[in-house]
Amino acid sequence: MARKRTVRNRGEAAKLEMTPMIDVVFQLLIFFIVTLQEQDILAQLNISRPAPDDQATEDRSIDLLTIEVGADQWVLNGRPFARPGGLPQLDRQLSRLASFSQDASVIIKCTADSPHGALIQILNILSREGMQNISVFSL
């Protein structure tokens, strides 16, 4: 006679609860953020800067040109040029600045009410002067 096999209930498999672990991690994170003292970190940094160079500061003054194209004027680095009579003055100014550095970055900011032709005139001047690092965006 064969024995009957009895199945014993071994219970459910143990589950690993993630919620308490996440709580502990957040508590540790908050503890370290609160106890961190920024002045201690900055005091320990060893930074050596090069001596200022007068010629380098002059070169950096024309590394970035900002041209704003508005409805009735252009603004070159904060200096307004009225349209349409200001185009020759703006042309001379851009030619002079391009003679210092053709590698200068040019940012052209167009407002929503600026005419498309004004942007094209600026791009034509910059192209004629050989400036190639140009970014255009709208405000």
What does this structure look like?
With 139 residues, the chain is an alpha/beta fold. The protein has a domain at 58-138: Nucleotidyltransferase, domain 5 (2-Layer Sandwich). It has helices spanning 19-35, 38-44, 54-60, 87-100, 116-128; strands spanning 64-69, 73-76, 79-82, 105-110, 134-138. A five-stranded mixed beta sheet has the order 3-2-1-4-5, covered by helices on one side. Helix 4 (87-100) runs parallel beside helix 5. The chain is elongated.
Task: Write a concise keyword list for the protein shown above.
five-stranded mixed beta sheet, alpha/beta, 139 residues
Helix content: 40-55%
- Global geometry: elongated
The assigned CATH architecture of the domain at 58-138 is 2-Layer Sandwich
Q: Helices and strands: which structural class?
A: alpha/beta
Per the CATH scheme, the topology name of the domain at 58-138 is Nucleotidyltransferase, domain 5
Biggest beta sheet attributes: 5 strands, mixed
Strand order of the largest sheet: 3-2-1-4-5
| Computed CA radius of gyration, to the nearest angstrom | 33 Å
Short description:
Helices cover 42% and strands 18% of the residues.
How do the helices and strands line up, and which of them pair or pack?
Blueprint: H1 19-35, H2 38-44, H3 54-60, E1 64-69, E2 73-76, E3 79-82, H4 87-100, E4 105-110, H5 116-128, E5 134-138
Parallel strand pairs: 1-4, 4-5
Antiparallel strand pairs: 1-2, 2-3
Helix pairs in contact: 4-5
